[in-house]
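Posting for a labmate who doesn't have an account.
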Amino acid sequence: MLDFAAGLYSPDKIARFRALGAWTDDTVDQIFTDRVAEYPDKIALVDPANNVALVGTAPRRLTWRELDDEVTALAARLLESGVRVGDVIGVQLPNGVELVELYLAAWRIGAVVSPLAMQYREHELLGMGSAAGFAMLVTVPDFAGRAMAAEAVGAAAQIPGLRVVATLTSEPVGEPLAGVLSLVSSTATDADRAAVAAHGYVADPNHPITICWTSGTESAPKGVPRAHYDWLSFTWAGVDAPRLTADDVLLNPFPMINMAAFVGKLLPWLRTGSTLVQHHPFDAPTFFGQIASERVTYTVAPPALLLMLLRNEQLRSQIDLSSLTRVGSGSAPLQPVTVRGWQEEMGIAVINFFGSNEGIGLLSSPEDFPDPTNRAMYFPRYGAENVQWASRVSEWISIKLIDEETGEVIDEPGKPGELYIDGPMVFAGYLNGEQLANPFDADGYLRSGEIFEIAGEQNQYLRYVDRAKDLIVRGGMNIAPAEIEALLSDHPAVAEVAVIGRPCEVMGERVHVVAALLPEAELTLAEASDFLRQRNIASYKLPESLEILPELPRNPVGKLLKRNLRSALVK
């Protein structure tokens, strides 16, 4: 159980960010309650269109009033099951109405949710459940033919302190398992309302509400606790960049388990009173069908999908994207050809975002970067002299680039350095952080592990270079894989690409390319090298080996798992 009395943040930090206006008295439940009062009969939340195939229940559409009613009923059921203030609830549910209801119900009574990817199995449940101290674990009976409840029961006995395993559906599905509590969305009774009121929980914005998990691209996942304060200030980036309003219809294909979905969709939806349409796991026909049928105005998509659509005019002619006005993308460098093509050929602005669970939040919006090439290549350098940025978060964030060898601050353009960041969205520290390396410097800045360099005529931009630990050192020369990946992504045969270092006794490392190709395409090492030579890159950056895979390995939230590619090389 997390210590609610202490909260996550120190009085000094609270005073600093409240003085800036970044942190306020707002809590998530109060914002939700405000939206219910403002838009009671407006459609708030929509299930995935293929819900029957996923979880066995028909898709639902709820108004804000109906959603609030079911949240209250679920909050009463949680209290009946013994959930107490500060208890951590492990949540392994697909995107849908019930997932959002559980989050809101838990926060209404002072519980903490720890979202878990649907791909996780017993190993991850044990590790995360033990680290976070799950008091309750909630899943679905079945997900696309996988017996989720049975798996949860198998792991539950080994998680210390776990008291309840439950399923949550919109209607009873199948025979309940012994020892599993069956929660079903329902309309609140007067007794439910009275029970929640009698519980008497009053939220403090410093109270923790989530424990999300780092993506673990290079190490075991680490818990990232967050409170109302940091989540709600972070949320403004997700509202301001796409300029969301209550008239928007948001389609969320990202698993609602971390920063991307919380800042990109869930909390901006609550802030604005827009409509949230759920989707999970990614299924192209369903996704495009939802855009058309729900008249979606804003969604997110990975760079590879955007590039594929841009190149495939036949596919574009078969789908209706006419309602879309902007699309967010990130998790990998965007190509200028993609961003420019979507804007000029399709009339849709692509927003470039770069974030992390720990608190990096950089977004390049059409307002700040009207030139799509600049929007693909650069992010705002908050704090640059004589430059104003559109989002209010620019006034709250401080950044610096640090030379990895000297530890000195970098002020000149073109010199790579690690991004250090401070602001109201930066997390307080890892769960059980005393067991981990300190992620902050002496001044409290988060050491991001990401390499950027200053760019732009006024030194107003940041250009992403690479992750510090991804750098390839070949014969004493540093090579940034992202640079080569960005160039090879433009090759007409390439669907997605990763560049890693292949161990070499003579050179230290050699450049190794791993690519997934478009249907019926072919690519040789010589062709890849010739393509790069035509871009006039230095010869030491040319690939020396090429591997073709059907698809590149990714974690549950879509991040490339380069460690898997490296370990395959060792074997």
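Reply:
Got it, the structure tokens are right above this. The mean pLDDT is 92.
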